[in-house]
Specification:
With 95 residues, this protein is α+β, with helices and mostly antiparallel strands. It has one domain: SCP2 sterol-binding domain (Nonspecific Lipid-transfer Protein, Chain A), CATH 3.30.1050.10. It is 42% helix and 25% strand. It has four helices and five strands. The protein is globular. The termini are far apart.
Length: 95
């Protein structure tokens, strides 16, 4: 597992504290994937309600709070496939 994925998993688990209902996958370009559901975040690649794809810098900026997920999506830095409602709930949970 890459350092970026490991740090992101730890940050997501600390921020969400089991408060996300649904399933999502973060694909961090050139690093790997993170699965997120009611059990928490973990490195992995599986089926999810929605898949969000970004480069490592954008993803880290969203996690740190420097970039709003909606703004990243609107600017094309974050791509979302699947259930947009799930993506919006996750974005709200990360804010």
């Amino acid at each position: 597992m890459s350092d970026v994925i490991e740090q992101a998993v730890n940050a997501l688990n600390a921020r969400l504290d089991g408060s996300f209902d649904g399933s999502a996958k973060f694909v961090i370009e050139d690093e790997g994937s993170i699965m997120l559901d009611d059990a928490g975040a973990r490195a992995g690649d599986g089926d999810a309600d929605c898949t969000m794809t970004a480069d490592a810098d954008t993803f880290q900026s969203i996690l740190s709070g420097d970039t709003n997920a909606t703004g990243a999506f609107m600017s094309g830095k974050l791509k979302v496939d699947g259930d947009m409602g799930t993506a919006m709930r996750l974005g709200s949970a990360l804010a």
